[in-house]
Design goal:
552 residues, alpha+beta, three-stranded antiparallel β-sheet, 23 helices, 12 strands, 48% helix
Length: 552
């Protein structure tokens, strides 16, 4: 098709088109394709072993992987709408595959495909070829490309660019100096004043201009040209402007309009070409995600269908594979829609107890041999919870848990308890924990109330009907700043209560500080949140530490 060759020429000549044609190709290169079984309900189940896996894994780049094949597929489908999956050195250890433009592959009379070099001569790469194309609405055997619809715009853009180049090359930015012939001194040399080399005035003027160009920074370049002539002719010396930026570059706006039309005509969001300068980080990320979902996924699934229909199913049928007609190529786009930097996801997953330490280190990019030992893990946990640590013989020792209590609260090793020691049963311990959590919820509410009091004290315009804990959420972060300062001291009563209940001062201070930080972080929510994740475990750990100190 002549249009395909025109599209390739526009791809080579128009930088904006060259850039946008690689947009989907870059994302498609990160998609993972796998063989799967399609059941009657339309659900696919990945095949992890067997002939479908082995056959699909043969489709690899010369250097391994499949990213370049997928990249070239996305590129050629955008430019020409057509390409060829070409395999050579088949059934050999170094079997290779490429995705090529169809003019690079020749099909011999016997059906064998051979790759051609740049001079259209046959190479030693002989194998098999599968044509893959986007069907045109007019006829399904013809290829369709988004560039076909914008060819006139591409031609217009080339003409405008040539016009700008012509203006830049031919314009006279320095203008013209006009001297009356009456003030030009006669030349003593034969040949007449018509020869510029015999004109003394022109010789002096050209010498002056040449010195300014070649001897920049010298005195002769800084001194103005001295010209002496009769008074009645001096006002006739003038400079004529030959360059007007306002009119010489009228193509600038026309080119911008052509680029915008080209962006609207491509099979992708205009932001892919025009940029997202008005979007912040999060908005741009969402736009990129929507781009892939609306324009990238259909192209990725098209490659999966082509690969399944033209290569995988056909080969499995020839090999007599059972249920070959139920085998499809699945698409995994997780590496496209998920950010490569997953450190924040790792932190959130660990907070929600949804991931183990090995997976956490992998997402963080930490080597497994850097994992802490069990003693180091307990030591670091004790630092985080502010537990007391002892040094024994130069080694770090974590305080052990206190002896287990019997049902009556007595230790099985220590015998009868000291009358001055308060012992609790298991049921009493659960009740005490519930009371501690209830007091924590009240302390959290107190922090929000205290913030409301401080905000209202500094702003008389707040409606009196708004409850104190909700004032910050009503005003929002635009009007309410420094939330940690607003809630400071809200958990002081909770800290004192914990100390009365037998907690160590450091443990009580740590729990109270945790509540205040959490209250500041959730201050703008419209309702009081639940207690922070892991707070119950922190209480139990603090309680065990306090009990251990009491037993010691």
């Amino acid at each position: 098709m002549p249009k395909q060759h025109r599209a390739l020429e526009y791809y080579d000549q128009i930088p904006e088109l060259h850039f946008v044609c690689h947009f989907l190709a870059r994302m498609m290169s990160r998609v993972r394709y796998f063989p799967a079984i399609l059941d009657e309900s339309g659900k696919i189940t990945e095949i992890t072993e067997g002939e479908p896996v082995e056959r699909l894994n043969k489709i690899q780049d010369p250097g391994g992987g499949r990213s370049q094949i997928q990249y070239r597929y996305g590129l050629l489908q955008t430019v020409t709408g057509e390409g060829v999956l070409f395999g050579y050195r088949l059934n050999q250890p170094d079997e290779r595959w490429k995705f090529l433009w169809k003019d690079e592959v020749k099909i011999r009379d016997n059906g064998v495909a051979v790759r051609l070099d740049a001079q259209k001569k046959e190479t030693n790469d002989v194998g098999i070829a599968y044509r893959m194309w986007t069907p045109h609405p007019r006829h399904s055997d013809e290829a369709d490309s988004p560039i076909f619809a914008i060819m006139d715009i591409c031609e217009e853009l080339l003409i405008l660019t040539q016009s700008v180049r012509s203006t830049a090359v031919t314009r006279m930015t320095n203008g013209i100096m006009v001297f009356p012939s009456e003030i030009s001194p006669s030349s003593p040399e034969p040949g007449g004043d018509e020869d510029p080399e015999n004109n003394i005035l022109l010789q002096d003027w050209m010498t002056h201009v040449q010195n300014q160009k070649e001897n920049i920074g010298s005195a002769e370049a800084a001194v103005p040209f001295l010209f002496e002539a009769a008074y009645e002719y001096l006002d006739r010396v003038q400079w004529i402007k030959t360059h007007d930026p306002a009119t010489d570059y009228m193509e600038k706006d026309l080119r911008l309009e052509a680029i915008k039309r080209m962006a609207l005509g491509m099979d992708m969001p205009p932001e892919a070409l025009l940029g997202m300068t008005d979007a912040n980080h999060w908005t741009a990320k969402q736009v990129m995600h929507d781009m892939w979902r609306s324009h990238g996924i259909p192209k990725a699934e098209q490659f999966a269908d082509d690969l399944s229909e033209e290569y995988l199913r056909r080969g499995l049928e020839e090999d007599g594979y059972k249920d070959w007609n139920s085998v499809v190529v699945g698409v995994d786009d997780s590496q496209v829609v998920i950010s490569p930097d997953r450190t924040e996801d790792a932190d959130k997953a660990l907070d929600r107890i949804a991931i183990g330490f090995p997976g956490y280190r992998e997402m963080k990019g930490i080597r497994e041999d850097m994992a802490p030992t069990e003693q180091e893990r307990e030591f670091l946990a004790s630092l985080k919870l502010r537990q007391p640590i002892e040094l024994e013989g130069g080694e770090l020792v974590i305080p052990q848990r206190g002896p287990l209590a019997q049902a009556n609260g007595n230790s099985p090793e220590d015998g009868p308890a000291d009358p001055g020691t308060r012992l609790t049963s298991r049921q009493e311990s659960r009740t005490a924990s519930a009371e501690i959590l209830g007091a924590a919820a009240l302390a959290l509410n107190r922090c929000r109330e205290l913030a409301g009091v401080r905000i209202r004290r500094n702003d008389d315009s707040i409606a009196p009907g708004i409850p104190l804990p909700l004032i910050a959420s009503v005003l929002g972060p635009e009007k309410v700043v420094d939330p940690l300062k607003l809630v400071k001291g809200g958990a002081a009563g909770y800290r004192s209560l914990l100390e009365e209940w037998g907690f160590e001062t450091a443990q009580a201070e740590s729990l109270a500080q945790t509540l205040e930080v959490y209250a500041a972080r959730t201050l703008y929510e419209s309702r009081q949140p639940e207690l922070p994740a892991g707070f119950i475990a922190q209480i139990e750990k603090a309680k065990e530490t306090s009990d251990a100190m009491v037993h010691r």
